[in-house]
Amino acid sequence: MNVSTTTLLAALDKYLDAASISDYCPNGLQVQGRPQIKRLVTGVTASQALIDAAIEQQADAILVHHGYFWKGENPCIVGMKHRRIKSLIQHDINLLAYHLPLDIHPEVGNNALLGKLLGLNVTGPLEANNPRSVGLIGELDTPMTSQEFAQLIEQKLARTPLVIDCEKPIRTVAWCTGGAQGYIEHAIAAGVDAFITGEISEHSTHSALENDLSYFSAGHHATERYGVQALGEWIAERFGIEHQFIDCPNPV
Ligand SMILES: [Zn+2]
Q1: Could you read off the pLDDT of 177-236 as tens digits, one per residue?
Q2: How far is the CA of 1 from the centre of ligand 1 (A)?
Q3: Same domain, 126 and 216
Q4: What's the 55 CA to ligand 1 centre distance in angstroms?
């Protein structure tokens, strides 16, 4: 089975409600390739390693969470960006990227899926008055110690989190996948026991300790593996095309 790039894009834009979400990069088709897609590769980031793996798999399209053309970056196609785009164009591979739409989506969003993976029952948005809040708030069925919660994260994400431990039982949790250390302010405002995100800054330690909030930095890559995989499966099921998720390891 195959699907036209145009049909696939229309279905994705609709399912992810991409047009209604303002973002730091263009969502959808970022680099055009062949008009028909039979084999899809998904990955977290459109790195050279992912492109090379997709070429080896003879993929017609790559779908990622982190694509190109970020706001504020040098828009010129030179250096690393040139090598990546040249590889795509030489092999006629489409590059599709969805950033915030793939963080926010209630079914295939990174945040919804991270919550599900960790057994967190969603109780609301992380940003209290934002219906398009990227992060979420939820609770565990049974409270855990911070050590138990760290073990759960390690077991589910195959990555040891960096923990700023306030040594109190964890029942309510705020989370936001990726590099959302700035969102700790929302977690503090919500009064939860713990905050999970992908990255951490020097000042996050003090904010966490001084606000009695345990902080789990679980990896930007590790927390954002799940949305694009689920979306790839959704596409494969809907259009009957081949899908393979390729996890190019990243310790950050
Ligand atoms: Zn990210």
Answers
A1: 999 999 999 999 999 999 999 999 999 999 999 999 999 999 999 999 999 999 999 999
A2: 31
A3: yes
A4: 24
- What Cα–Cα distance (Å) separates residue 32 from each residue in 37, 57, 92? 12, 18, 8
pLDDT at 130: 87
Please list all protein residues whose beta carbon sits less than 5 angstroms from ligand 1, which is an ion: 178
The alpha carbon of 72 and the centre of ligand 1 are apart by a number of angstroms equal to 16
For residue range 34-66, list pLDDT tens digits in order. Answer: 999 999 999 999 999 999 999 999 999 999 999
Q: Can you tell me the distance from the alpha carbon of 155 to that of 215, in angstroms, rounded to the nearest whole number?
A: 17
CB contact set of 150 (below 8 Å; sequence gap of 6+): 160, 161, 163, 216
Q: How far is the CA of 221 from the centre of ligand 1 (A)?
A: 7
Q: Is residue 206 part of a domain?
A: yes
Q: What's the gap in Å between 145 CA and the centre of ligand 1?
A: 28
Q: Could you list the residue range(s) of the whole structural domain that residue 112 is in?
A: 105-220
